[in-house]
Amino acid sequence: MPVLVVLSAILAGVLNTVQAGANTALTKALGQPVLAALVVSGANALVYLAAAPFLGLAWPGTSRLAQVPWWAWLGGAMGGAYVLAMIVLAGRLGAAVFTGLTVSAGLVTSVLLDHYGWVGFAQHAAGPWRVLGCGLMVAGVALISLS
Questions:
Q1: Which of 41, 58, 82, 115 is positioned for an S-S bond with 126, CB 3.0–4.6 A?
Q2: Are the C-beta atoms of residues 27 and 33 closer than 8 Å to each other?
C-alpha cells in the first residue's frame, strides 16, 4: 500500500475529528444546527470545486447514470445525516466519545460490508482477527466513556 495513500487516510481521520469541534463551535456561534449544516455543505461544495481541476469533473452520459444502483444515490443524504449528528451530538459527547462511537460503528459496519461484499465492496472474510479488532474498538470506546 503506497505511503501517500496511508498518510492521506490518516489526515482524513484527523480532519474528521477536528471537523466535529469546528462544526460544534459554528453551531454554538450561529445558534442554529441546520444553518450550520448548510454552511458546512457550502464549504464542502467549495472544496469539491477547488479539487475539480486536479481530479476532473465531467457529467456522465445517460447510459452511465442508468447503471447507478438506486441505493448509491443515498450517499449524499447519509453524509448530510452524519454532519447533522456531528453538529448536534459531538459537543454533548465530547470529541473522544463521539469519534470513538462513530469510528467503531463504522469499523464494525465495514467488516460486515466486506464479509458479505455488500454495497460494491470486494468480499473479505470477517476472520477472527477482524472480529477481535472490532471487539477491542468497542471495548476501547467503553473505557473512554467511563471517564
A1: 115
A2: yes
**CA–CA separation, 32 vs 77, rounded Å?**
19
Helices (H), the chain: 3-30, 33-55, 62-66, 75-93, 95-116, 128-146
Look at the chain and report how many structural domains it folds into. 1
User: DSSP letters along 37-58, please?
Assistant: HHHHHHHHHHHHHHHHHHH---
Note down the domain range covering 112.
Answer: 3-146
Question: 44 vs 19, 41, 68, CA distance in Å?
Answer: 12, 5, 23
Q: pLDDT per residue over 76-128, tens digit each?
A: 999 999 999 999 999 999 999 999 999 999 999 999 999 999 998 999 999 99
